Amino acid sequence: MRSEPERWRTDYARDGYLVVEDCLDKETLTALREAVGRIVDDPDALPPHLRGHVQLEREYARPDGAEDRDVARLGRAVRLVMELPEFEPVFAELIRHEPLLDVLQALFDSTEFHFHNYKCVNKAPGASGAFVWHRDLPYLYHSTPNLLTAMLCLDDMTEENGATVVLPGSHLLADENVAVGDQNIREEDLPPDLERRTVTCPAGSAVIFHVNILHGGGANRSSSPRRNVIGIWAGPDTYPTGSARYAYQGLYPRSQDPARRRQLSMALGDADARVSPLRAAAGTG
């Protein structure tokens, strides 16, 4: 991955999103794909405490038949997997994936940013539905809006497989004007003067979104899966205020504070003293 902190900051500030290719190396990409496959291929084989974090496409199908989907044919297609670090060590180790941390440090302009959660969006071919237009901020309960969403693409993201569509510039809305209803925005209520841009990129890319940018995504009409690992990260002095808590929430993977460095080592182990689970899962040393 090329280090381009100035471009990262410029693109993110101007457009409200940023694409960084090659954020995941081949070994890491393989390990993550295999780990996600073990979850989505047979969700009912998971132990109950993990199965509860898996949501199926048919749970989102509209009862009025407005979508072009046959609910009976959706089967066991998985749509969302929450709490990824609870499933396998490869997802917990992803919290300190150095290339991604380089991007986050540049955008937050600090080493004191911290992890909130990881989930997987799985757009199964022929079964996935569209994602509604929304902003991320209304879903996140924190003391300040200094947050961002980091999407790690495990597959190529194309128009055919339901790539995310963004409205560049929509992130410039003042935080206090973001409404709770912005979790689900009707097509006719979108700003008519803003460009719609489909975010396409190769597998291994990171796509970073401002939490105020308007975005959505179509269904996967291709014959291949489209899987993304999506993380929420919080900047300095930004703390959760809601009741929900997530696995490894509050870890600071780049912090210079001795107590936070000790916390990271206690939670994930000493990165320098053992083989990374990401590389171990891919069969590398």
TrEMBL record:
Pfam families: PhyH
InterPro entries documented for this protein: Phytyl_CoA_dOase-like (IPR008775)
Organism: Actinopolymorpha cephalotaxi
Protein name per UniProt: Ectoine hydroxylase-related dioxygenase (Phytanoyl-CoA dioxygenase family)
The organism's taxonomic lineage, starting at the top: Bacteria, Bacillati, Actinomycetota, Actinomycetes, Propionibacteriales
Keywords on record: Dioxygenase, Oxidoreductase
Domain of life: Bacteria
Molecular function GO labels: 2-oxoglutarate-dependent dioxygenase activity; iron ion binding
